[in-house]
Records
---
Amino acid sequence: MPALLPIDALLIAACAWLVLGIAGLVAPRNLRFISKTLFPLGALVGMMVGLVALGFLGESPEVAVLAIGLPDLPFHLRLDNLAAVFALLLGFASVGISIFAAGYFRKGEGTAPGLMCLQYHIFLASMLMVLLADDAYAFMVAWECMALSSFFLVTTDHRHAEIRRAGYLYLLIAHIGAIAILLSFGVMSSGSGDYSFAGMRAQSLSPFWGSAAFLLALLGFGAKAGLLPVHVWLPEAHPAAPSPVSAMMSGVMLKTAIYGLLRVSFDLLAEPLWWWGVVAMSIGLATAVFGVLYSTVQSDMKRLLAYSSIENIGLLAVGIGLTLIFHAYRMESLAALAMTAVLYHCLAHAGFKSLLFLCTGSVLHATRERSLGKLGGLIHRMPWVAWLALAGVIASAGLPPLSGFVSEWLLLQSFLFSPGLPHPWLNMVVPVAAAVVALVAALAGFAMVKFYGIIFLGQMREENLKDAHDAGPWERVGLVWLAGLTLALGVLPSTVIGFIDAATRQLLGTGLADKVREHGWWMLAPISPERASYEPLIFLATIAAAVLLGRQLVRRLYHGRLRRSAAWDCGYVFQSARAQDTAEGFSQPIRRIFEPMFRMERHFPTIRDEKPYYSVKVEDHFWHWLYLPVARLAERGSRLITRLQGGRIAIYLLYSFLTLIVLLLVARP
Amino acid sequence: MNVFGFLGQMFAIALALLLAPLLTGWVNQCRAWLQNRSAPPLLQPYYMLHKLFLKDVVLAHGASPLFRFAPFVVFGCMVLACAIIPTLSTDLPLAPAADTIALVGVFGLARIFIALAAMDVGTSFGTLGGRREMLIGFLAEPALLMVIFTTAMISQSTSVATIVETLAHRDFIIYPSLAFAGIAFTFVSFAENARVPVDNPATHLELTMIHEAMILEYSGRHLALIEWAASLKLYAYSCLGLALFFPWGIAEGDSFLGLLLAIPVLAIKLAIGGALLAGIETINAKVRIFRAPEFLGTAFLFAVLGLLVRLLLEGRV
């Protein structure tokens, strides 16, 4: 009997997810069975996917053909190192999210639990199939399954009109993206009729058609990832979905778009041009700045995180752009550095953003409140969630010693090499782009302090928060798993790079692992220790030693006495929770400094107001500059077409007759 | 790692812990002289620390464990920062743990913790201080990173030790880009250390303060640690500035004589630097909080100019 190949194991996992989903339909209302049996089993399958992918990394590609679908058009599947890195991400992230989901779903919330279980597991299986697909047909089928299942998951709570609207917007933009991807595949097959990826690799496109394929792919995958200007669905859909689904979408689904972009630009298109990198980098920088600025001014905790996801996707696009530039100039070892930063950030973001979204889920369940202005002080009632969220916040702010910092460090290191580019002005402009990346990272810290400080710290802004309860045991396990991933990615960078390096080597022909391995597992020195090094474990140990030693010495030499009293607050007696900063107040400096970036509607109270109130509404410029004009144009166009529609059958017959005449005149045998 | 290197590292940390309050005391003394006041004793900061450690901690009712934990983290971050910045010698076993980019990260970590602690009790001044600190932070951090990029491009390295070795021990070359970077760094260090044009370390006027507003609720040993960490931060920034722009006198490798010689050199440099700091603080007035972006925007502009000068004019020197 032949040994079980990793690709077969992954296919079995996809089938297992489907079976679990269908099992949910057997007893669609039996919440206990579904949440306590099916979701944990789904997590187990996720663990298997992650481990299989981890074990596969570094092996040579495996192919399989599935004879399903249309006759003579089987699914071609292929597992290579790039797919394995993303399967690893999918598997390990889904472990935490599925376990959390086991404790999350309650009775009477929107869709029946059984149906939800089906949609959720189809979503997982289709994401895995997207990674395994090796022809345009299989890819598009899996891609559409992913879009549709996530659409139904977003609209779980479909009784609210705004959630239905968010779902519609998501579906619309997902399909604009899908059309662009389909066209891109069409260009890449260049009329040969061979839609398998192997066929596309064999084509050598002219620069014009190659660029067309790249730009279409950038639009298509950008629409899924949330790049400017097709990002508008993201801040609507993420808050609308239940938290485990938001976590899955933000942590994993956005990465499948990054996977697609990497697959097209580095694998299917043989010869990248340098200006593709400039385009990707410019869009990425714009997206990152836009995302982080808008995330600082949000008042809804899930919208804040959704905009922060846009920022991270922007940073990934910057990294991809930099890799493309280096790759186009055949500076492969530098391209490998930037590519490692991209892949690392994919993993890091999957960990910390899922963690933060799940934390908002726990807060939402405990308080029924999403608005930051009505939260506060939850660290006293929800210590588990609060302390684990702190890990996510530090990682998301890109601070050492957690995961977000490693990828940021790698990205900045690769920027430092860009003056070596053999191009007259590129080598001067690109290092300055690093300044924007630095600004984005610093602003992310602002957004995260706002997120954490207003939800978990301070006094409780509402009375009912006193009854908030901490996350249940299932939820805790899921959160601990994701926080553990964030910590592991933060302190063991060399080990992780040793694994993901296989994908870099596959795409660029060279990797970082050999250089990284020279210096021991605790040290990250991608070029040489003299050039740059980072040792997160020693970093962490030094701070921990200083903390512990400081504490012990102070207690030994002096004392550890402590007494409680009312807060000082400069002697002001009338302290109330209302005196704290609101979410809007906290971000006021940002709104003031970056005023032209926002479209604001503000109402200030005057002294004559009977009932003074203050309100501020921040809107996206893109709605007014791009989307509403396009929508109006589409409406006007359809109104013109409506004129054809007279409602009388005689007129329709006349149209058919006229068409026939025209066709007879035009068409020659 | 050899024994000498380890001892040198320990000595550098101990020296930082001991010297930092002295530097603060010296700056305060200079400032008092320049402002025609009678100066406090040079050792005043030590008396303060001793007094604060003796006092009980008075903790607000609403304070969470994070509030009690944060001073230690901030202190630990500053100790690490002082450990990796070469003060006497570039032979530091801890130096590979963090390069200059990670150093910016250390300061960022400390900032996040103190801003979160400021929001913890939930008083109006605390949140106000936290918000303003994060505002100054996101304006100063990119400028600092650009300064570091400029020096890193000159020495082809982001490791602090390598940068110092390149600048101090190779043939003397004048880098115009370093002048721009130096100006930007001075601006940033004023903002980061809560000094006059941006913040006033001596203020207790509620509406103008930033750093003091954040630590209003702290008392006893917690306050002592924060004050100590603040002087460590000033010391770290001074030493970083000296290491990047005036690196001469820092010993390379493990020669005992070089180390002995480096101590008086460092003391003289810090004394001059502290006096200059006091002088600049005296002739300036604190600006409104919304002028701070202009101040730090200028710093950022200078830093980017330095980078461009490096790329445009100096080529590959």
---
Amino acid sequence: MSEQATRSHPHLPGESGVWVFILGDMLMFAAFFIVFMFYRGEDVALYAKSQLTLNQHLGAVNTFLMLSSSWCVAVAIETARGGRPRGAQGWLLSAMACAVGFVVVKFFEYSEKIAAGFTLTSNDFFMYYYMLTGLHLMHVLLGLGVLTYLWFTLRAPSAASTLRTLESGASFWHMVDILWIVLFALLYLVR
Amino acid sequence: MNIRNELLCIWSAVLFVIIFTIGIWPLTHFLPPHLPTASAEEIAALYQDRTWQIRLGLFLMMGCSGLVCAFVAAITVAMKRMEQGAGPLTYTQLSAGSLGAVLLIIPCLVWTVAAFRPDRDPQLTLLLNDMGWIMLFMPFTTFVVQNIAIGLAILGDRNAAPVMPRWVGFLNLWVAVLFVPGGLLTFFKKGPFAWSGVFVYWVPLVVFLGWYLVMFAMLRKSALRAGAAV
Amino acid sequence: MPGILKLRVTWLWLFLIAATVASWEFGHGLGFGENIRLSTTAVIVIAFIKARMVILDFMEIRHAPPGLRLLLEAWTLVVATTLLALYWQSA
């Protein structure tokens, strides 16, 4: 069992301010999800037909990459807590590799769709598909910047603030993961 | 530092919000927004039926937009405290914020042109109406850069007693992210990402108001504290 | 690296991968056979169980102050319920 399981008093992951951003973003995406589901209900046939053209395999691969990336960051935090910043840096690099993989897969997925003639304005389903995955992709790119920043903080001599910064960035990255988990279900799997 | 002048600039935000609201809501009826799907005749009729209200409303909206400059100046003064002297983020905010004021004034002028001769060819009124809406809601870039500059300055504040709490910094960064979808309104005539849509019109409007409120309260606090320290 | 096998998050990660495979299968219409609506319900429920696991153990909200945990639990519950309600209403 990790040390967190034995910790009894409450511990806020990261600094409190970062939760304004995370909760705000989660609220925004909650609105995206609900609006999507509402309009899907207005024209189920169109959404179902358009969804069939999506590549579920690429979507699933990206879910694996996102989950693994999130896991790598969680292990990086544990490793840093154990007083091994070099090890934590390694785990962060693995997380970044998964994130880059996610971006590359998305690039191929988009090109495949565009080559098949499906674009932002093809129909309502594709509007949501491109807008929601696109805004999520923007968060993945932001997250890559955050992970890089965390990697550099670990180079400096370790301080109490280092761990808190790590937790703040990690919480943001886990949020990006959570949003993708829901997006994958909504866009690729809901029938 | 003259705290009275600073407070004057901060309070100008309240005046701006009140006058702008009067202009956009009861006078022009631009709240709720026109639909991008409306026909030229429908849009022309709006300008013909409410000519003087629209002219007056736009006069007020344009007229109070200059106050944004005063508010931007108040933010600049607070940021100088954060950066301990005018740093690059302070200048970024100052220039991006000032450009933001221009991007409020120009759409009002374009709509004013539409209301100037409401009996002209409806297609031309439609063109001008489109121009106004797209000019007001598409250019997110200055707002995003301004908010990121404010956010980073707050988070980078190394003062023993920080000028603003760190959550305000993260709030500014969140607002920046929120304004990006509006930039894609050019692709849509209906749905939540069109200029009349929930994610381009309603959410940014509410968030913008909330942001004004938070920044107003925080700037006021910062000014009063700076005044007490002198 | 035997150390990571001792971490709770590692086992959760394996479980999350398994859950993804399961919901992928439901997405193909398997699991509940012809009943698409039950499959979709399962897909949505699994997605939010996964989201909650990430929230509680990856984000470490399990040990966060109760207020924050409450907000995030509410997010999961409210969004999931609304999506399910909208889905069942539509067909």
